[in-house]
Write a structure and sequence with these properties.
The protein is built from eight helices and eight strands, in the order βαααβαααβαβββαββ. With 266 residues, the protein is α+β, with helices and mostly antiparallel strands. A hairpin with a 2-residue loop joins strand 7 and strand 8. It has one domain: Peroxisomal Thiolase, Chain A, domain 1.
């Protein structure tokens, strides 16, 4: 059972992975027009952060801020004015691994900096401080449904507030003993600026609806690019960004154990 379609406009798009470091690189690859570059970039270097902070920022923070900034730039919208939704399956797994090991071996020597970077909303907090944003932010984690659930939250906020919303999704690589419990490799970050009405920067109209059913795994127009993000916990974002690269297509995303988010790019 599903409700009527709602519409949001995609005004800004950003994507980052080691093989596709930026939407300008990713878009033609995801559309099938060119092959992916052979090389890989280890991690993003967000210009929004001062050099010292940029070097010290954990991977999750650097990744989230990079795609958030690029999406706002793409939409030509001031980031300080946008409410935001951040979605991550695991947060920063390397820091979680450090915290667990340190609490076992040397709890009194825990790094205060790493401790404050271990909280789930660290990336959202860094973002708001970096851009001077006082608009509300939401952080979402719903295990393997995190991308769909976070996008649904962002779309709902657009529909209810009639204001643009920044949506940011990211996950990093598992390390240490945690890697045997949760599966995630590499870095994947993606961001959208969603607006209630068309503007000069609108990339596409996004028609969406929600149905109460056991959803399949994320499905979309093609899985030919899956190897570029395979293994990362945020890989379920790929079908939507393929459709955005093609400017057409239908996508179904799992947003919960019995919740499917249906999207159509027009």
């Amino acid at each position: 059972m599903s409700g009527p379609d709602a519409i949001a406009c995609v005004d800004g798009v950003a994507f980052w992975s080691p093989r596709l470091p930026g939407w300008d690189t990713a878009s033609p690859v995801l559309a099938g027009a060119v092959e992916a570059p052979a090389g890989a970039v280890r991690r993003p270097a967000p210009a929004l952060l001062p050099p010292t902070e940029r070097r010290r920022a954990p991977d999750a923070v650097a990744l989230a801020i990079e795609v958030a900034a690029r999406a706002c730039e793409s939409a030509a919208m001031p980031p300080a004015e946008l409410a935001s939704v951040f979605a991550t399956t695991h947060g920063d797994l390397a820091i979680t691994d450090y915290m667990c090991a340190n609490l076992l071996d040397a709890p009194l020597h825990t790094s205060p900096t790493r401790f404050h970077n271990s909280v789930h909303n660290a990336a959202a907090g860094y973002w708001c401080i970096a851009v001077g944003c006082h608009a509300p932010y939401t952080t979402v984690s719903v295990a393997g449904y995190s991308f769909g659930a976070g996008l649904l939250e962002a779309l709902t906020q657009v529909a209810t507030s009639a204001k643009p919303v920044l949506f940011v999704a990211y996950d990093t690589e598992a390390s240490g003993p945690l890697a045997s419990l949760v599966s995630s490799s590499g870095l994947v970050g993606a961001a959208l600026v969603l607006a209630p009405r068309r503007g000069g920067a609108t990339v596409a109209d996004l028609h969406w609806s929600v149905s109460r059913e056991k959803p399949p795994r994320a499905t979309g127009s093609s899985q030919r690019n899956a190897n570029l993000v395979s293994g990362n916990a945020m890989a379920s974002c790929l079908p939507l960004f393929e459709a955005l690269a093609l400017r057409r297509g239908g996508v179904t995303l799992p947003a919960g154990p019995s919740l499917a988010l249906r999207l159509e790019i027009r």
